[in-house]
Amino acid sequence: MMSPHRLGLAPPLVDAGESNLAARLASGQLSSYFSQRRFETRCPAECVRPSDDELARLYSSCDAYVLPSIIEGLGAPPLQAMACGGAVVTTDCLGTRDFAVNEVNSLVVPPRDSAALSQAIVRVLTDDALSRELRKNGPGTAAPWTYERMESIFLRTVESG
What is the pTM assigned to this prediction? Predict the structure, then answer.
């Protein structure tokens, strides 16, 4: 079954974090940002803050979960996407190095390399065997990364610092 994304229907922007993205969208700040830089966007000016169950459904049903960050701590959202069987494309933004394995459970590209990121996204969207492999390997990767484990690692780092 072809997803709405592949049919060219723009989905709402999903903000799974604790940012003020919804407020910035509502105030028009992002539209101004895009227009000042001559970017055209077909994304609707709508932001959704899903419940945990809805977020799991979104992760598992998306064509690709993309983390284009330059630098991250431990990247919990890609782990969440992997846990739900999502196909992950991420930059090598430090925080994903503990779990993201290129061509095994994700596609990993250099930060700030928009061409490589675009190519990786296209690969996931067009190579069904690759997408199936990433989706198959993701849950096993994510399983050991419980919130308790991540908290323990964080506290040890802070206490040793």
Answer: 0.71
